[in-house]
Amino acid sequence: MRRQVPLALCFLFGMVMIVAQFSPHSLSQAIYKEVVSWVLIISPFALILATLTLIQTHATRIRRRTEHWRYSLVVFAGLLIMVVVGIPFGPQNSVFEWLYNNVQVPMDATMFSLLAFFIASAAYRAFRARAFEATLLLVSAMIVMLGNVPIGDYIWNTVLSWIPWEDGASKARQWILDIPNLAARRGIILGVSLGVISQSIRIILGIERSYLGGGD
What we know:
- The chain has 216 residues and is mostly helical.
- It is built from eight helices and no strands.
- It has helices spanning 4-22, 26-64, 70-89, 94-126, 132-148, 152-159, 168-178, 180-204.
- It starts with a helix and ends in a 12-residue tail after the last helix.
């Protein structure tokens, strides 16, 4: 019985949202707006649950002295400082803004800069022309990179001057992005959308129950 209530609610609200999306009737649109308002009310509770889960996870790491457990102390310190500074004085106070602009923003920039090296390493492994597909990927990547830098058109017009195409790097780059790249993106998005629809139907009908915390 404890599992039947969430399944019934999931089915009910899933069907309501489907009908609201495909029905232009004023009643269905009013129900849709009301459900969206409920979502906005529930979201803070989800944030509280996520925070409690974060605390529980890192507290367990500290208690068990797992690998790199000292970083969990940094998590607690940052969480505590931002809460103590942010809640009483609001997010617009100078201390909170200083911590955000001088700690959070540089850390985000550092993470993205490190990610660039991982991308470059993965690209190097993927672009090695050992097959026709890898060669095609390598050539396309070189053209797109040439089209993105100011000197790309100069290199194109100098090295590939035998091709009668002014500003060829920029035009070739745009053609790759607008035709084959866009077609591939649409195919991927279509496949993902079909997967989302399939998974949503499974959840609404109660076939997929992993969100309940168990296999069945």
